[in-house]
Amino acid sequence: MCEAKEMEGELKNFIRLCVLTIAFLLYSYFIAAKIPKGLLRLISLLPVITLLSILPFDLNSLHIGFPTWCFVAWLANFKLLLFAFDQGPLSVPKHDLLRFILMACFPFKIKQNPSPKKPFETKTNPTLEAATRATILWTAVYTYKNYEHYFHKHVLFIYFFYTYHALQLLLALAATPAQLLLGVELEPQFNAPLFSTSLQDFWGHRWNLRVSEILRATAYIPVHRISTRIIGPRWASLPGVFLTFLVSGLMHELLVYHMTRERPTWEMTWFFILQGVFVDMEIVLKKKLVATNQFRLHKAISGPLTLANIALIAGWLSYTQALRNGIDEKLIKEFNMFMQFLKGMAISKR
Question: Count of CB atoms within 10 A of residue 322's CB?
């Protein structure tokens, strides 16, 4: 009974946050958009950005709080920062109100030139993908919950599996409202990350593409532009890449804090800092060796090395932090609460 009330309270907080977020976006669309781009518009949006950063902390659950903080406090705020200067997905082309709100709240990208469907061709359906991923995750959590003693030696593998499918589910759910309400074809959120041939390829072209685009616009491009003036165009990408990973690391650290409410220990930030260093090393090696045809790894070797690099460092830093803070136990507890909540709803309708 107590768990059902806790879940009900969480849903009420989530609904309140949704209403307030829409109200703030209405202000951004009808009032802030009329202010000339630049510093003045940024100042007019700062109260919205501040409140959207704070409100998700009213949510305590992993499955509701994590995506809300990610979509609202991180991505929506970064889009509003770009919008202040007439850049980013909220600015071009001019959106109607519904598209503006959906674009601000959810990470999706509309295909500009959708290809005509060919006979026997199947296109990605976010609703079907979400249902598939949800089934996979439910099976994984249920199996781990009931047979935990069989998996204790392979817990990191289970976390990798869960993270991969949970993100796929989360982003498929995020794309569903846009597809249903706007009737448009969307760009894929991932591009076969398991087939990456380098860290550059993984982070820049295959993994979580909408987040990569936002980070590229808010961190990489400004730093690259400044670096070009200081050190020239040949190596200007190096500080841009490193600062982009640093920003990503800090935002992920805030995500971990939201999930645990424990004092930051910075493992997540260090994971992304190290990835930034390794990507910069790749860039230097490619410019020095590959471009001059002195050395080139075959993708059958570079691909597994890429995935091993990410898996080992994630297991060493970010997943260790998650296990130490008991996120696995909280996940199972929420799973039980959600099932009890559904049973309570079913009983009350009889």
Answer: 22
Model confidence band, residue 36 (pLDDT cutoffs 50, 70, 90): very high
Model pTM score = 0.86
Q: Which two tokens stand for residue 229?
A: 């003036």
pLDDT one-digit tens code per residue, 91-107? 866 678 999 999 999 99
Shortest CA distance to 94 belongs to which of 42, 29, 38, 41?
A: 29
Q: 203: buried, middle or exposed (CB in 10 Å: 19+, 13-18, 0-12)?
A: buried
| 65: exposed, middle or buried (Cβ count in 10 Å: 0-12, 13-18, 19+) | buried
What single letter denotes the amino acid at residue 316? W
Token couple for 88: 């980013």
Structure tokens at 186: 């969307």
Structure-derived torsion over alpha carbons of residues 78, 188, 138, 345, reported in degrees to the nearest 10: 70
The DSSP output letter for 32 is G
- Burial of residue 76, with CB atoms counted within 10 A of its CB: 0-12 exposed, 13-18 middle, 19 or more buried: buried
Amino acid at 146: N
**CA–CA separation, 141 vs 342, rounded Å?**
17
What stretches of 167-218 adopt beta strand conformation (E)? Answer: none
